[in-house]
């Protein structure tokens, strides 16, 4: 019996161990392989900022439909039921009066209970303000779509930037760990030689110091990777704590060419959504002026009404008569004077139109500076990559030679340490050059308004 109880407790303990072992996995989520294409696709589908801007498109579309309804007929049914405790008064119907009397006689006629129902129709015939308002709503709908495109370009650029940053951080972390392993081996060798009396204590202390100086960098890079992972989850709209394993690598396309400044500027003006928005703003200001001018024109409507009304006493509507009244006609109104509001609004619209021109011209000048800066960065980083690649290869060869000489007892420990430090620095500088170059390419796509997937 004791054996059965012991086996039962053993199984319970094993089950608890399995549950506790699975809890961190359920808390932190599972690992998932993620390519750049998948990251961009998920951002397009689930990014919260894009979803908010897509709702703005639906709102503007609905607003256009509301404005378009101003041209349609307006049909309404109204009715009323009233009870008079004192019948309505009609003056001048109470009988003959003397001409010198200032009093006007009156009489009370009609029933105590009054009911009426009417159906009305108003069909706009001419209203230029409505036409201009519909055109303006369509322009605002187009503007909301351009805002969505601008947001999409920005989100895709941020996803690419984050993806490249994580790749570089991973390589830097790998490089730093390799450097620590090399220095730990050097520390082990120094301690062994010191124990044999073949090395100085200062060599051991120097090796120990180098290892300890490299360890904080590993922690810094690890936390930077965790922060970048969280930023990526936010960008692609992932609410779970998924750990992504990036499947793409840091590869440079040798066929890449740097475009010309003139061509890049023209492409940016034609393709960037924000420049299309600025152009559309000028059209909107013109439409506002037309809308203000149209408020001074007459408005013509077709109106019609069919009405039933009755009067009775003691709520006897069943025995009352219901005579109909029907009419149709044309109604128009002409604004004459409203305190110069129309004139002032037209003047305001012209000022806003001039302001839109100045904003566009200022944006053009800023774009020229942005294009020049990003192309200069591309040229500088591409040349720096070539230099750092050669330096990295030279440093690796130098480290191999120094290591061989050290093993043969020709080189000193200090020479090997310097060679290892030069190798690590050269590879880190090369990674930094690659990151700067890819970042400049992403910025070029942002400047030109491109939303390509590949880097």
Question: Can you walk me through this structure?
Answer:
It is a single chain. The protein is of the alpha+beta class and 455 residues long. The chain has a single domain, classed as Outer membrane efflux proteins (OEP). It is built from nine helices and eight strands. The protein has a four-stranded antiparallel beta sheet, with no helix packed on it. Strands 1-6 form a two-stranded parallel sheet. The protein has a two-stranded antiparallel sheet with strand order 3-4. The longest helix is centred in the middle third of the chain and has 69 residues, at 128-196. It is elongated. It starts with a helix and ends in a 7-residue tail after the last helix.
SSE map:
Blueprint: H1 2-28, E1 31-34, H2 36-46, H3 48-68, E2 74-83, E3 89-91, E4 106-108, E5 113-126, H4 128-196, H5 201-235, E6 243-246, H6 261-271, H7 273-294, E7 299-312, E8 324-333, H8 341-407, H9 413-448
Parallel strand pairs: 1-6
Antiparallel strand pairs: 2-5, 3-4, 5-7, 7-8
What are the key terms here?
elongated, single chain, Outer membrane efflux proteins (OEP), four-stranded antiparallel beta sheet, 455 residues, alpha+beta, two-stranded parallel sheet
Terminal Cα span: 69 Å
Per DSSP E runs of 2 or more residues, the count of β-strands stands at 8
Q: Which percent band covers the strand fraction?
A: 5-15%
How confident is the prediction overall: mean pLDDT?
87
Radius of gyration: 41 Å
CATH level 1 class label: Mainly Alpha
The helix count comes to 9
Q: Based on Cα principal axes, name the global outline.
A: elongated
CATH architecture: Up-down Bundle
CATH topology: Outer membrane efflux proteins (OEP)
The total tally of domains equals 1
Helix content: 55-70%
Counting helices, strands and paired strands, the structural category is: alpha+beta
Report the biggest beta sheet as strand number plus sense, adding barrel if it closes: 4 strands, antiparallel
